[in-house]
Amino acid sequence: MWKHLERRLYKRRPVNLNAEIGVEVKKGGVAKKHLLPVKVINLSLQGCYFITNTVLLNGKHLFLEDIGSNEIEIQIYLPRNLIKTLAKVIWFDYTEEYKGFKVGLSFEFMKDVNLNLLKQYLSLKDSASEK
Fold it and tell me: Which among 44, 113, 118 is positioned nearest to 77, based on CA atoms?
């Protein structure tokens, strides 16, 4: 049996964080931004994956190219801080476990202040799991 080779640069941590994704959907030449609540269940310095039940909005698929942009904005509510950054959808798949969709994101152009908050949060998660 083949053992899975981990190729990720940063360690993933299981989390349970509220978040919102901001997507811009164009319909009839008019673009409208929507904020949709999601649940982040896996997080690293490089990206995250979240669970959502919404993949169609105004007849447009949120995670395919017909949304008009390859990037979405995500706001992750850490226990004491808010991180807001642009991200690129890497993959998505239906999951029976959550009766919804898992969506993998890669963070793009994260500001230093957000990166530092994320590093601090993840290091606290590591400290707590070692106890």
Answer: 118
